[in-house]
Design a protein that fits this description.
It is a single chain. By secondary structure, the protein is of the alpha/beta class. Helix content is about 25%, strand content about 15%. The chain is built from 16 helices and 19 strands. An eight-stranded parallel β-sheet has the order 9-8-7-3-2-1-11-10. α6 runs parallel beside α7. The radius of gyration is 23 Å and the shape is globular. Bound molecules: 1-deoxynojirimycin (NOJ). The site of 1-deoxynojirimycin has 9 residues, from loops. 1-deoxynojirimycin binds next to loops.
């Protein structure tokens, strides 16, 4: 087993619009991130992943890319990016970019050319189809953000495909020039020194070349939103994707120490296929979203850990996440006390953890009034709670105006409870979520059993999840009470000093069966490691 940084290290996900605004326009920027690198170094993470910072009309806040090799003026310049990269590297922090390969902006020059005429040489870079025989869209495919996945372009009389907004036309990855052009952008950033890519929406890369209708989803409930009405059989997870990803991996492997992370909302048995085969590896870290999906019970958590571990191929390195810019925040989903237990699990499970900005200080979703909604998904499909503004609220740095995020008017509301939930206040408070994250990350660095060791899941005891982590004769026990009441845990023959707890003032060692306090989780160093 090699100790690549992306295996033992931790990743921090920055949503650039909301992290730190250096120029007072109310939107975060690269200079803002650069000025806050010390926070990340102090926290103890190893890499930051930036959601897109490329030139973009911002219809989907950067996930609609108009130029793959530039920086949007809202975020700064290419020189600002180089400075950020240099300063991050000087602190031992890697930088990962978001590669939005499935689609571009409708204002990308490639699409502007493509829509100009049926005969344009970029026509086949996107997916164009004639209307259905009786008129209307070519088939029943749906956009993830509501409505059909097809928009009619009146000038040329054909429909183009968009898996997301109509402002985000899907590229045609069956056309070799598309791959060549996107791989050119990948090289551009790798040559500049970026440490890897998070691959956006990567399961959508290929679609059925016969354009067959998707089947209805028999278990659809309206509150899931219109997209879930169909099973995405012909628009996601197609076999052709693997060969393209293997070629991307071969390119990236030409640059030592780089990583590919894949956004894939798939069941384990499908997810793990994206590690690729031994002879043709693909993604280093296909994202494991299970902790975002399950009911937060010990039974579900233990099952998720067991099933994920069992599904992993031998060379497949695991990974875990608790939140991102598309999902309600962990402290809102689970409550502040259980969010601490979740952080302990995230940072002690086997595999690379990704921390979503603000989760380290226990930020919660910030509601946005209907008239202030920014997210296009919420605008298209209002009222179902699908909108993503609440988890994108500005980072809180101090208790000053706008929580120190901006001197201007923040693009999304900062929210309440700023006095307690901010970096400066929590730095001074050993009981804070920030202090817990720092202790956990320091322990991960100090204990190879956490960064690289094996994992043995112990039988669940009621509301308590427990596992061992072992490396080179050193063994740690992790015990987590997911109930808001005290729970007994019997460690069997296991004994040893408590290295870390979510709570202050607990026992220094586990003496045999003991009571975990409500919402308590701890890490124990086992005395008789085998
Ligand atoms: C997934 C991203 O995480 C999300 O924010 C974005 O809207 C879609 N892909 C489309 O790019």
């Amino acid at each position: 087993m090699s100790f690549d940084w992306w295996r033992t290290g931790s990743i921090y996900h920055v949503y650039p619009r909301s992290f730190m605004d250096a120029n007072g326009d109310g939107v975060g920027d690269l200079e803002g991130i650069r000025g806050r690198l010390d926070h990340l170094a102090d926290l103890g993470v190893d890499a930051l992943w930036l959601s897109p910072v490329y030139p973009s009309p911002m219809a989907d806040f950067g996930y609609d890319v108009a130029d793959y090799t530039g920086i949007d003026p809202l975020f700064g310049t290419l020189e600002d990016f180089d400075r950020l990269l240099q300063d991050a590297h000087a602190r031992g922090l890697r930088v990962i970019l978001d590669l939005v390969a499935n689609h571009t902006s409708d204002r990308h020059p490639w699409f502007e050319a493509s829509r100009r005429a049926r005969g344009d040489d970029k026509r086949a870079w996107y997916i164009w189809r004639d209307p259905a025989p009786g008129g209307g869209p070519p088939n029943n495919w749906l956009s993830e953000f509501g409505g059909p996945a097809w928009t009619l372009d009146a000038r040329t009389g054909q429909y183009y495909l968009h898996s997301y907004l109509r402002e985000q036309p899907d590229l045609n990855w069956r056309h070799p020039a598309v791959e060549e052009a996107v791989f050119g952008a990948v090289r551009f950033w790798l040559d500049r020194g970026v440490d890897g890519f998070r691959l956006d929406a990567i399961s959508h890369l290929f679609k059925d070349d016969q354009f067959r209708d998707n089947p209805p989803n028999p278990s659809w409930r309206p509150e899931q939103g219109p997209y879930k009405r169909l099973i995405p059989l012909h628009v996601a997870d197609l076999p052709e994707t693997h060969a393209a990803l293997a070629r991307l991996r071969a390119l990236v492997d030409g640059y030592p120490g780089r990583v590919l992370i894949g956004e894939l909302y798939l069941p384990f048995e499908r997810l793990v296929t994206y590690y690729g085969r031994h002879a043709a590896p693909e993604i280093h870290l296909p994202t494991n979203f299970v902790l975002l999906r399950i009911a937060w019970t010990a039974e579900e958590i233990a099952r998720a850990i067991g099933e994920y571990e069992a599904a992993l191929p031998q060379a497949g390195w695991p990974n875990w996440v608790l939140g991102n810019h598309d999902k309600s925040r962990v402290a809102t989903r689970l409550g502040p006390a259980q969010a601490r237990v979740a952080a302990l699990l995230l940072l002690t499970l086997r595999g690379t953890p990704t921390i979503y900005y603000g989760d380290e200080i226990g930020m919660e979703d910030v509601p946005v009034a209907p008239e202030d909604v920014r997210d296009p998904w919420e605008r298209n499909v209002p009222g179902l709670g699908l909108g993503r503004d609440p988890e994108r609220s500005p980072m809180r740095w101090d208790a000053g105006p706008n929580a120190g995020f901006t001197t201007g008017t923040p693009w999304l509301p900062v929210g309440g409870d700023v006095e307690r939930v901010n970096v400066a206040a929590q730095r001074a408070d050993p009981g804070s979520p920030l202090a817990l994250h720092r202790r956990l990350l320091a322990l991960r660095r100090a204990e190879p059993a956490l960064g690289a060791g094996s994992l043995l899941l112990l039988p669940r005891q009621g509301d308590v999840v427990a596992y061992e982590r072992r490396h080179a004769g050193r063994a740690l026990l992790v015990v987590a009470n997911v109930a808001p009441e005290a729970r007994r845990f019997d460690p069997g023959p296991r004994r040893g000093p408590v290295l870390l707890s979510t709570h202050a003032g607990g026992p220094e060692a586990i003496p045999g069966p003991f009571l975990l306090r409500p919402d308590e989780a701890l890490v124990v160093l086992l005395s008789q490691a085998g």
